[in-house]
Design brief:
Strand content of chain B: under 5%
Largest sheet of chain B: none
Distance between the termini of chain B: 46 Å
Number of domains of chain B: 1
Order of helices and strands of chain A: HHHEEHHHHHHHHHHHHHHHHHHH
Largest sheet of chain A: 2 strands, antiparallel
Number of helices of chain A: 22
Shape of chain A: globular
Shape of chain B: globular
Family (chain A): Belongs to the CPA3 antiporters (TC 2.A.63) subunit D family.
Number of strands of chain B: 0
Membrane topology (chain A): Multi-pass membrane protein
Organism (chain A): Methylobacterium hispanicum
Radius of gyration of chain B: 24 Å
Radius of gyration of chain A: 23 Å
Subcellular location (chain A): Cell membrane; Membrane
Number of domains of chain A: 2
Largest interface: A-B, 78 and 68 residues
Structural class of chain A: mainly alpha
Order of helices and strands of chain B: HHHHHHHH
Keywords (chain A): Cell membrane, Membrane, Transmembrane, Transmembrane helix
Oligomer: heterodimer
Chain lengths: 603, 258
Amino acid sequence: MPNWLVLATEALPAAALPAAALPPLPVALPLLVCALLLIGSRALPIWLPDLVAVLTALAVAALCATIAGRASAEGPLVTWFGGWTPRDGAALGIGFSADAASAGIATFAALLFTATLVFAWNFFDRTHGHFQILMLLFLAAMVGFCFTRDLFNLFVWFEVMSVTAFALTAYRLDDAAIAGAMTFTVTNSLAGILMLAGIGLLYARAGALDFADLAAAVARAGHDPVTAAAFCLVAAGLMIKAAVVPFQFWLADAHAVASSPVSVIFSGAMVAMGLFGLAKLVWVVFGGSAQIRDAVGVFMIAGGAVTALFGGWMALIQRHLKRLLAFSTISHAGIMLVGIGALSQGATAGLLLYVVGHGLVKGALFMVAGILLALRSSVDEIALRGRGRGLAGAGAALGLAGLLLGGLPVGLLDLGARALHGALEAGGHRLALAASLLGTAMTGAAVLRAGARIFLGWGGRPGNEGRAPTLEEQERGNRAYWVMFVPCGALLVLDLAAPTGALVAAAPGWTRSFTGRAALPGDAGALALGAAWMPAASVGLALFLAAFALFGDRVAPAAAAHIRRLHAGPAALLNASHSGLVGDDVVWIVLGLAVLALALAVV
Amino acid sequence: MSPRLRVLLLGLAALVLAPCALAVIAAMPEFGTAIAPYGARINAVAPAERNIANMVTAINFDLRGLDTLGEEFMLLAAVTGTVVLLRGRRGERDGDRAARLPGRAVVPRSEAVILACRIAGPLTALFGLYVTVHASLTPGGGFQGGAVLASACVLIYLGEGYAGWRRGVRSAVLDAIEGGGALLVVLCGLGPMLVGAAFMQNVLPFGTFGALLSGGLVLVANLGVAAAVTAGFSQLVLEFLEETRAPRPDGADGGDDA
């Protein structure tokens, strides 16, 4: 365990508690505060819920960090709720098993909530603390989702996340918000139903719900249609949350219409939770089935690569900044999915680091979008051209975050990306590696192009993004610029200041504890960072693409016009395929389910 | 995409999914095979170690009480979300007064309805309490009892009219009861930790098997859930009824009574 972590966590009062008492606390604390806020909702002064929510989120972060520190030293902290410890080697009740990596992810989620609640200070003052209640419930659900070792309990927290998210999406209550929330509600309820059906199938086979008992039953079952179908349904549910192609259609609509503080959480943490849960189940529950491992190796690698490219391309042809960022989240979700498909310890370490790095950078980006919405009353890149002047800090943050997203070789996101690159190279997944580099470059280019247009006024003639759907919207400008900018900057500082050396040293141990097993055959098990030229190439490509989008007309008019014509048809088709109709989204989900079932049946 | 294309794609997917589903069904455990081992063990543990006769309650509030904690707060999230969305559109003003649509006739209720509601209301509430406190013994418990109690609350509207309902049922009070019930459930989790037990460990005396006061902490948690469910459902009814009072943009009348 790195020294800085020992020092940081020993300073906290919770460090003195017995190990088993710690994991329930970061879930129970926000629930307790929610209940108290609801009791006093009419009597409290309007600034108090904001303050209480920020402090609670911060306390949850401190508790989770303490757990991460303890788990790093002592191994996973296990709690059995109600004191129902396993008997005769089988669980009776529900357990939490907080390993260092899961606790680290929970810490990150709590920090993101803290920053978001500061960012949203005073934004939701009309609702008697109801917004803060929903946000804290959201956080409690995420922490429970990270810590649980019981499949049905995982589903419960998954659903609490969904229910809070539905209401938070529709909060703005105009037609677009209601439509987006409706699509989100239907698709993600479908995700819940699929997951529940899968859990039912697995319970029928295993007669247990605890991860360890399930893993034993899955390993016993061998090549078994029931286990495979259970995995298919549970994985589809989680991949809907994670917005993997072709399950992704809801995401851009929901993220684009949600209020910007909510979008920060959605893109920064909620999507990543889907991938985190999938990684955990693939390793901890289904890892013993060769059939499922083989299908994961094919579907997740191919699906992740396609998602990375698709999201990147879609991001390039958007003009609505939040929609653009939403598609970049899809692209990065694809890259993380490839990390699951690689099925190696190094790739899993990369995935976990990437989740945090991406969440920090993407959160900061959505905050910049929120600043523009509040102070410039638009997030349309073309309508805003040059109007970002005077918001130098936000512009710098957008530029830096765009470079980080495109692969700038510093900070946590880059560390995760390089760990993924190294693992993909070692696993022989060269095409997926190329796809993830291209996806990275395209999302970076899209953000840089939008930033240069908004804050520098460059790029007078829009390309195909000019024909993308956009939306007139604004958010209340009742908050001071610095209140919104400080959390945004803090997220970027966290990404840049992460102690990469200490993390590289700790990652193999944390990953072993997270996956619950030693490396699979053929996996060295070490954290191998990819070559330095890869991030450099992707950030170079991002800069080139952005520059071409902005200045192509002036430098090489003939080539630019030709590419634009060639690109116009597919771009229009892609934008049209995101019809926002629930029926279409469901058809795509069923098709994705069929492809995954086929992979499981054939491989 | 066009409806025809949708059906075509769904048909393609069904071509793959149907044989897979058949294979899964063929491989499932036979219909009527013995109860899963987990269930069998719980059937043995709950009466012997907790003096609880109702296995469903033993699972929901003791063995797997954490799921119920999550579900209780899922309900709270759903109610809070609904309130935020409905109230957000209407605005917060006039929060505690019954909204009136101008020009809508106030139809007096028949005295038979009033009498029936005044008799049925308290009886329904009593039954709700009965279902709640017998959680350890007979089918039912906090969720079911709370739903019955909320029905009793809605009978106030039916019997006393909308203005009477709004005078008697205050949104702030419902918030407090809902939050208080949820708080009680959380404290059922945290409380035992104060005496060194595990989160939600049943540390109260279990009573005798079959007695009303059996099951220990299970009864307390059920009371908390019942309070939260009663107030949560009543809050939903209140918000939805108020929603019908909001003037519509086209000027049409919702067309219900006063």
